[in-house]
């Protein structure tokens, strides 16, 4: 295990006695393969805001895009702390994941090209973007791109029930 690979810690109090901690390779595969995540952010007046969106797991972080005038972009200008969740709507199968972190704007042209290519690779030609000046340009207009490097990831396995926490060191 490298210094960059987090080790899962099983929360025994919330897990079946037969459960084992989720391994990071499995969690990372689930983060990569999930098609929909729910982004939770905070409005300037403190009320929560939750919305579904498409994400990409690239270089150890989740990436998503949004229009500059959308509620989530306006929230992130005031408070970049977010939670992204994905999983199944099943009680007894699958694994749900919760990613806590800070959303940071991505404006570098090379990084935006990587994100644009990844959207097409994962979601198909309907998600084609051109790289603009610090944004991705698509049918819906310019989109800001955000990167969320995880601070903490929780995995909630359901067969058997197991709650695993992965912690990440602060970014340099």
Q: How would you explain this protein's 3D organization?
A:
This protein is 19% helix and 41% strand. By secondary structure, the protein is an alpha+beta fold. It has a single domain, classed as Electron Transport, Fmn-binding Protein, Chain A (Pnp Oxidase, Chain A, Roll), CATH 2.30.110. The mean pLDDT is 93.
CATH superfamily: Electron Transport, Fmn-binding Protein, Chain A
Shape: globular
Counting H and I runs of at least 4 residues, what is the number of helices?
3
Q: Which segments are poorly predicted (pLDDT under 50) over 5 or more consecutive residues?
A: none
Give the rounded overall mean pLDDT.
93
Number of domains as seen in the coordinates: 1
CA-atom Rg in angstroms: 17 Å
Percent helix range? 10-25%
At the third CATH level, what is the topology name? Pnp Oxidase, Chain A
From the coordinates shown, what is the CATH architecture? Roll
Number of strands: 11
Q: Which secondary-structure class do the elements indicate?
A: alpha+beta
Order of helices and strands: EHEEEEHEEHEEEE
The biggest sheet, with number of strands, parallel, antiparallel or mixed sense and barrel status, is: 11 strands, antiparallel
- State which percent range the strand residues make up: 35-45%
Terminal Cα span: 20 Å
CATH class: Mainly Beta
Pfam families: PNPOx_N (PF01243)
Protein name: Pyridoxamine 5'-phosphate oxidase
GO molecular function: coenzyme F420 binding; oxidoreductase activity, acting on the CH-CH group of donors
Keywords: Oxidoreductase
